[in-house]
Design goal:
Layout lengths: L14 E2 L1 H11 L1 H20 L6 E7 L14 E10 L4 H67 L5 H34 L10 E2 L12 H6 L5 H22 L5 E10 L4 E9 L4 H71 L5 H35 L2 E2 L2 E2 L6
Helix pairs in contact: 1-3, 2-3, 3-4, 3-6, 3-8, 6-7, 7-8
Length: 410
């Protein structure tokens, strides 16, 4: 069962769902389009590898335009030969196998790129959703600052507070306005960054459809560990090993020397005679020359096995650390939203009422406001971190957004 996606889709026309963002990126991302041409290059290389040695023709003319008996063309000897190379050791098949292995490795590398793209789209989508929450929080801060300024003005009019408090309140309002404007720019930049994944400059959506504070339940750690082998970064090692196996087989085929064969007919003008000619050429020492290439392929194959073991261990370490961070982010988010934020809201309401009655100072009012804003900001950060950790765990498990990489192939 694929893991649930961290966001729930909505239907408003100006909203962008995560599925829409992923679909656009898979269709329009220029890196993926370029990858398709790379596979076509491999098809052309396969056709090249399948080519057989060409036939060649040779025309020799001897013993003419010389001196004495070789004067003129009376002693001319003309030889017409056709020749080719006869490949031994099944070299043509081994070349084709090598190109096929290269293509499989390229496809595995493209799976890594595709999975990374899916994860990057999700991360940028999460960033947009988090920036939307940050903008809402900045607007709430402006509202609180204006409400605090209104309470201060009431106390100033009642001669219960001085102009200094009024000035501080106006400064607080101005600073929240600046912070709100900054949050708007940050959100615009995040939207452009998301649209760039499908090669667009201007975002055509107003907001995401993210159910930002709905945190999907994670899979068990054991299930994630079992899914590690689906990670394309590990799968590509199997393809890389097949590449070296194919290169080793091609190197071993070089032990069998190719035979150069020529056959033709020779005409001797002096006697008006003609006859057949035949030549066969075989190089010596082919096995000795092939040995270094065989060793190279064997060493490369052994290095791949060792590297795969190191990457697998590193992935496990990363998976464990991310899983712990995921659990912490969920605990933090649940605690903030269930206990801390409601308590901060009650504290602010009590402080505002007490300030109006003169029981609390302006600094205590500001402190209560900032406390509420701080815990709300922490809740946004915790939810954002949870979604980011969730996406990264999905990527390590060889899928993104609950979809395996092969299922996501356009």
């Amino acid at each position: 069962m694929p893991a649930p996606t961290p966001f729930v889709a909505a239907s408003a026309t100006t909203e962008l769902t995560l599925a829409d963002a992923v679909g656009r990126a898979l269709r329009e991302n220029p890196n993926l389009k370029a990858a398709a041409f790379s596979l076509r290059v491999q098809d052309a290389r396969r056709d090249q590898a399948a080519l057989k040695p060409t036939w060649h023709g040779t025309l020799d003319a001897e013993n003419f335009l010389g001196s004495g008996r070789l004067h003129g063309a009376d002693a001319l000897e003309t030889t017409l030969r056709l020749g080719t190379v006869i490949e031994r050791g099944d070299k043509r098949a081994r070349r084709i196998d090598s190109v096929d292995a290269d293509k499989a490795l390229l496809a595995a590398d493209q799976d890594v790129v595709r999975l990374d793209l899916l994860a990057e789209v999700a991360r940028r989508y999460i960033t947009v959703a988090a920036d939307e929450q940050a903008l809402a929080l900045a607007r709430e801060a402006s509202t609180l600052a204006q409400r605090g300024a209104s309470l201060v003005e009431q106390r100033v009019k009642a001669a219960k507070a001085g102009d200094a408090e009024s000035g501080k309140a106006r400064i607080a309002v101005a600073r929240t306005d600046i912070a709100e404007e900054h949050a708007e720019h940050a959100l615009k930049s995040a939207r452009v960054a998301l649209a760039a994944t499908w090669n667009a400059r201007d975002p055509d959506f107003d907001r995401t459809s993210a159910a930002f504070f709905e945190l999907p339940a994670p899979e068990s750690f054991e299930a994630l560990v079992a899914a590690l082998d689906r990670n394309p970064s590990l799968s590509r090692f199997a393809s890389a090993r097949r590449v070296e196996d194919a290169r080793l087989a091609l190197a071993r085929s070089s032990r069998s020397a190719d035979v150069t064969f020529n056959a033709g007919i020779r005409r001797l003008e002096a006697g008006n005679d003609q006859g057949f000619v035949l030549s066969v050429s075989v190089p010596f020492g082919s096995a000795a020359r092939a040995a270094p290439f065989e060793r190279e392929a064997e060493f490369r194959r052994d290095a791949i096995d060792s590297e795969a073991s190191a990457v697998r261990a590193d992935l496990y370490r990363t998976l464990y650390a991310l899983y712990q961070e995921l659990l912490h982010a969920r605990t933090q988010s649940d605690a903030l939203r269930a206990r801390v934020i409601p308590e901060a809201e009650r504290t602010l309401a009590h402080t505002e009422a007490g300030y109006a009655l003169g029981r609390y100072s302006y600094l205590e009012l500001v402190d209560a406001q900032q406390q509420l804003l701080t815990v709300r900001r922490e809740a946004v950060d915790a939810a954002r971190d949870y979604h980011l950790f969730f996406v990264e765990l999905e990527r390590l498990a060889g899928r993104a957004l609950g979809v395996t990489v092969t299922e996501a192939t356009p």
